[in-house]
Each structure stands twice: as C-alpha cells, then as structure tokens.
Design brief:
Layout: E1 3-9, E2 14-16, H1 36-46, E3 54-57, E4 62-67, E5 71-76, E6 81-84, E7 87-89, E8 92-97, E9 102-106, E10 114-118, E11 121-122, E12 152-156, E13 166-169, E14 179-184, H2 193-201, E15 204-206, E16 214-218, E17 233-234, E18 239-241, E19 249-251, E20 258-259, E21 263-267, H3 272-276, E22 283-288, H4 291-305, E23 310-313, H5 321-325
Parallel strand pairs: 14-22
Antiparallel strand pairs: 1-4, 1-12, 2-3, 3-10, 4-9, 5-8, 5-10, 6-7, 6-9, 8-13, 11-12, 13-23, 14-21, 15-16, 15-22, 16-19, 17-20, 18-19, 18-21
Length: about 350
C-alpha cells in the first residue's frame, strides 16, 4: 500500500476531516479544519469528497515524501512557501509526488493554516465516526496527537495525480481579512447600544495567544450592561464571548462545548476561515449582517465548491544562476553618454 511519510513536522500539524458531529451533548465538540473553505477546496482539487481526511498545516511547516508508489496531491497553503526537491512551487498546486521526491512547506509572509489532500483515502481508524484531531482532548488523528517526523500514513486507492505540478486557480480564496461578518446574539442584550457599536467598529487586534481553541482580541474593553455571567449554554464555532475583562474571545474548532459568558455575536460560517488566517498583531473589525445574508453567503460558497478546480501550468521564475549565465540576456549596448 502506498503511503505518505512525514519527514519533518512543526507544532500544530494534524489530521482533520469534516468533524465529529452529534456528540455535543456529551461534551465533545466537532474539531475539524480551522479554514473550512481551503480544506474543502483542497479535497475538491484532489478528487476526494469535500469532507475527506487531509493534513492541516500550521506555520510550523511540514516535509513529506511518498513510499511504495506515487501519490496524487493537492496542496493549498496561501502565503506559505512551497518547494519540491528544492524547486519553488505556487502556494496552491496539484502534482504527483513520486517516491524519492521531497515536498516541503514553510511559513511565509502571510497565512496561518493550509491543507494537503491526498487523492485516495487516508487509512486511519476513525474515533466516533471521524479522524479529526481534537488537540485539547487528545481525541482522533494518530493517537490523538499532532503529526511528527517518522509518521507513515497509508493511502488506500491512491489517485495518479496531475503528473507535473499544476497551479490551482482559486480566486475565491483571495479574501479580505480586515472585516469579519457577524450575526448579533444570542446574548447581545447584555450590552448597551453604544457598546454594540463599539464592538462592531473596533478596531480589534488579534492576540498571538490564539490556537485551535480560540482567537483572543485586544482593544478597548467592552462594558457589560447586565453582568458577565450567564447560565452556561452551547458554544458554536465562531461564537464571540465577552468575559469579565471586556475583551472578546472567538471560539474556534477545538472550543469547549459550553460557556458561561454572554455571547455578543457569532462569526458567520463563510468568514471563519479568513478569520483563522489572521496572524497575531493584525487588526480587524466586524460587520453586522442578517441571518438571510449569512445563509446567502453560505450558499454562494457551496456553489463554488460544486465546480472542478481549474488548473494552469506552473510558470517558473526561480532560475538558477548557472542556467542564467548560459543564456545571452543582452539585447544591445550603449556608450553611456547622453
């Protein structure tokens, strides 16, 4: 059986699929991808179901090889640096990884999460119907942990891939991270109107303390009108709690199942990914939308993912010095006088 072999893995590299649903009443949240849109796009490009298991790549970086056969891959890591045997590739690319080749992903100037989907099926035993790794509880993935050097991931029915690298054309992933859309509530009545407006206007600064569980915001603290404690209720991904210090916390993929702080708003599903891609120190603000607008945005996203991902040949721009020195790059000379 062909396999993907992890040569090196930084912190936070995990297996994720569509998530572990139906167990919230037992205190188990779904986990799943931090950026659902990029994750699903990578699976679409690999020819897999949109919720198939894939590798989530953090800024810690990843290096992989293929063993016992070639593997078709789709890799989307916006803002990261990608090389295949030392040759630079686009940050959204499909290719066939031959045994002996080494694919490396490193953090770049932007972005926090990317996805590597393998054509075929990752042969990893599901836990409660999912292989998604919940990092806080140690559930799912490989023994509930992040990937590490030496891990071998068997692939059933591997696809042939694209052969030579092909750039994936994904304009819908060029998302503006500065304004995040939210639906107010369910406890926005815990805040006076001027505090709601202050929350929406921001700007808020993303704290570097964030992880798969939560995104912390710094800024001018909000003031509660009716105290900062409620009877604990369920927490959705994207729910924005405001604890006693007045600084919002956005709950993400590995969140807890319930919370006792008022939730001023919830990030709409189509904006969860671009929120997750914002690095610590960057600023953002919120824009209030209606439930109908949120549903329309979700439907538009679904329509995009129903179509195949277009490919283009990779245009090289990183020619080696010895190659350039072998070319006649001079089209003429002047004597330098005006």
């Amino acid at each position: 059986m062909a396999a993907l072999v992890v040569e090196a893995a930084g912190p936070g590299i995990t297996l994720q699929d569509g998530g572990r649903h139906g167990y919230l009443r037992y205190g188990i949240t779904a986990a799943g991808p931090m950026d659902p849109l990029i994750y699903a796009t990578a699976n679409r490009a690999a020819g897999n179901p949109l919720d198939a298991a894939a590798i989530e790549i953090s800024t810690g970086g990843l290096a992989v090889t293929a063993a016992d056969g070639a593997l078709g891959l789709a890799l989307i890591v916006p803002g990261f640096r990608v090389t295949l045997d030392g040759t630079a590739l686009p940050d959204a690319v499909a290719l066939t990884l031959e045994p002996g080749q080494r694919l490396v992903v490193r953090a770049g100037d932007a972005g926090a999460w990317g996805y590597l989907a393998v054509s075929g099926r990752l042969d990893v035993a599901p836990i409660l119907g999912s292989v998604a790794t919940h990092t806080r509880s140690g559930l799912g993935g490989l023994d509930g942990r992040a990937l590490a050097a030496g891990d071998r991931l068997p692939i059933r029915e591997p696809g042939p891939g694209d052969g030579a690298p092909q750039r994936l054309v994904t304009p819908w992933l060029d998302r503006d991270p500065r304004e995040i859309r939210v639906v107010l509530g369910p406890q926005d009545d815990y805040f006076a109107p001027d505090q709601i407006e202050a929350f929406l206007a921001g700007p808020w600064t993303v704290s570097p303390r964030g992880d798969r569980m939560a995104c912390f915001l710094d800024g001018t603290p909000l003031i509660h009108a009716k105290g900062h404690d409620i009877v604990s209720d369920g927490i959705a991904m994207g729910a924005i709690q405001v604890p006693g210090n007045g600084l919002p916390i956005i709950l993400m993929a590995d969140r807890q199942s319930t919370g006792g702080y008022p939730k001023i708003a919830t990030v709409i599903g189509p904006d969860l990914g671009r929120l997750a891609q914002i690095r610590g120190g960057a600023r953002l603000s919120f824009r209030r939308v209606s439930v109908a607008e949120a549903v329309a945005a979700r439907r538009a996203e679904r329509d995009i993912l129903a179509e195949p991902v277009r490919r283009e040949p990779v245009v090289r721009t990183d020619f080696a010095s010895d190659f350039l020195l072998g070319l006649n790059l001079v089209g003429g000379v002047t004597d330098g006088r005006p």
